[in-house]
Amino acid sequence: MNPSQATLYETLQRNLDTVTWQMKCACAASERSLEDVDLIAVTKYAAWEWVQALAELHPTFGESRPQQLADRRPQLPDAEWHLIGQVQRNKARLAVRHADVIHSVNSLRLLERLSRLAKEEQHPVRILLQVNISGEASKSGFDPQSLMSRWSDIIRATGSHLKVTGLMTMAPQTDSPESVRPVFAGLRQLQQKLNDLGQCDELTELSMGMSRDFEVAIEEGATLIRIGRSIFDGLSNESPG
Ligand SMILES: *Cc1c(COP(=O)(O)O)cnc(C)c1O
Q1: Which has the closest alpha carbon to 168: 109, 83, 58, 72?
Q2: What pLDDT score does 138 carry?
Q3: Which tens digits make up the pLDDT trace of 58-71?
Q4: Is the distance from the beta carbon of residue 221 to the nearest atom of ligand 1 less than 6 Å?
Q5: Is this prediction's pTM over 0.90?
């Protein structure tokens, strides 16, 4: 291992340690267990060298573009890969072929398409439904009311090779994480309402929280947090590795 590689590993381990410590504190504050929260390392802006090094330290990755997922996943097949970004129509097959979990299912049409393709590809995929809790026009996702009212259509569309395991949301960008707490609480309440409908297996996953707001998200019940910048902090894209 050359010196710059050693620095890369040290930086990644230090960042992972910091995030894990923050996760622990947020769990302690909300009387939750650290085992109930999974850290997804978001690699969308990360150089490939960083991802390879991180794979020796951490098992779960998130990509936002299906094409980059398709390029990277086969090279690290033992990691668990989550697709967290929008799935365009023409990328849906790549998505079901390479993702273990897709967080960004934002319409019934997309769900139907993924269901058909997952069957064709013979690849089971876990699905999270993306919800636009904040109601911002710029955010993608189901409207909470229509998700409730179309729930039986959604269950029907899921099919044999998909499994809806939970919900995902993105909070508005803000300098004060405290201000987005209601968004995270809103996703948890929606999950509860859908579970009360009782038409499918219990939804257990809540994918919410990024580098800027994950502690608040954990306090509000996140089970999957999606962290990019904080994991790769201190590494420069100009000279990876
Ligand atoms: C990029 C991205 C993240 C990670 O954001 P950071 O601020 O880098 O932690 C999380 N979720 C989604 C959907 C993203 O696109």
Answers
A1: 83
A2: 86
A3: 999 999 999 999 99
A4: no
A5: yes
Distance (Å) from CA 226 to ligand 1 centroid: 6
Residue minimizing CA distance to atom 10 of ligand 1: 226
CA distance 59 to 40: 9
pLDDT tens string 208-225 = 999 999 999 999 999 999
Residues 84 and 57: their CA atoms lie apart, in Å, by 21
